[in-house]
Amino acid sequence: MQTSVTFKNLDPSDHLKSYISDKLDRFDKYLYNPGEANVVLSVEKFRHIAEVNIIGDRLNIVGKEETEDMYAAIDMVLDKLEKQIKKNKQKVRERRSGKGKAKTAMGEPTGAVVMEDDGERRVMVQNIEYKPMDVDEAVMQMDLVDNNFLVFTNARSDRVNVLYRRKDGNYGLIQPNP
Predict the structure, then answer these.
(1) Is 56 exposed, middle or buried (0-12, 13-18, 19+ CB in 10 A)?
(2) pTM to 2 decimals?
(3) Same domain for 66 and 13?
(4) Are 137 and 91 members of one domain?
(5) Residue range of the domain that includes 161
(6) How far is it, in rounded angstroms, from Cα 71 to Cα 138?
(7) Quick check: 108 and 100 in contact, CB under 8 A?
(8) What is the CATH number of the domain that holds 22?
(9) Is residue 121 part of a domain?
(10) Percentage of residues in the chain with pLDDT exceeding 90?
(11) Where are the strands (E) in 28-174, listed by range?
């Protein structure tokens, strides 16, 4: 990602520039084409302000945070931008697949009946879409969407995996044997 850093009322620091460029590199996995980031770091009395503008993939996302520590402000604004990018990308995916128009087409559970000796037991069948991603990205996706499990294709092994939330709050991963 092409990054330009501007300092206002603050001495230019190569360490801050490298910190920001390293943090912004994690957004490359969300953008299909190379993006451009304009960063403005400023200090007003005791407030440290970080403002980031990311342009790429028909997106123009702006975030601004102010705290008493510049590094904390940078981390907070980048977390905010990551949420915005994921939300925007999800909207684009839903529009392309047509999910927004026809809600009954995908994702609606359908009932299949399984007969047992003592009676009838219902099995709910739900069709889901899964996409290739890393385990780290799947964990971030689970944090954004409050589900108990996530089915995805592992980008490294090209196999279907299931990430689930355990009762103790940690995550579990189910992988097929090679």
Answers:
(1) buried
(2) 0.52
(3) yes
(4) no
(5) 127-173
(6) 26
(7) no
(8) 3.30.160.100
(9) no
(10) 23
(11) 36-44, 47-56, 59-67, 110-115, 120-125, 132-133, 149-154, 160-165, 171-174
Each residue's pLDDT tens digit, 86-141: 888 888 777 777 654 444 444 444 555 454 555 667 777 777 777 788 888 888 88
Query: Within 10 Å of residue 12's Cβ, how many Cβ atoms?
Result: 10
Listed in sequence order, the residues at least 6 apart from 139 whose beta carbon sits closer than 8 Å to its beta carbon are: 163, 171
How distant is the alpha carbon of residue 177 from its chain centre?
A: 28
CA–CA dist 8, 135 (Å, integer): 39
CB 150 within 8 A of CB 141: yes
* Structural domains of the chain, count: 2
Cα distance between residue 33 and residue 55, in whole Å:
10
CATH code of 157's domain: 3.30.505.50
